[in-house]
Amino acid sequence: MKLEVGLYFRTKDGIIGKIDSISEDGTEIYFDTKPIFGNGEEFGSKWCYSTDIIKASHNIIDLIEVGDYVNGKEVTLITKNNYIELDYGCNMIGCHNEDIKTILTKEQFENNCYKIGD
Question: Of 12, 14, 100, 94, which Cα lies nearest the Cα of 59?
Fold first, then answer.
């Protein structure tokens, strides 16, 4: 996978971002999380190693996996053409790339859960 400025990416830890710049040797990726999380918090620029990136695409919908949360709803199905379905209780609502406002990956959800007991 060739990484370039402007691509969205997903790391093995479930971080999603958009590449702002790449170090000269290509080992470090700098990104701004604010446009992805879209919750108004000021995260600022972050960085990760290029070896931690598992997916990259011009379309953010390509990075979403079943179990992630998009626009506050759990992703229950992804079709071959990357059309995703969101769980709205008894109803399933479809979502396209342009409909995505916020993403919480399943890894982020797991890492931030308070666990009761052992």
Answer: 100
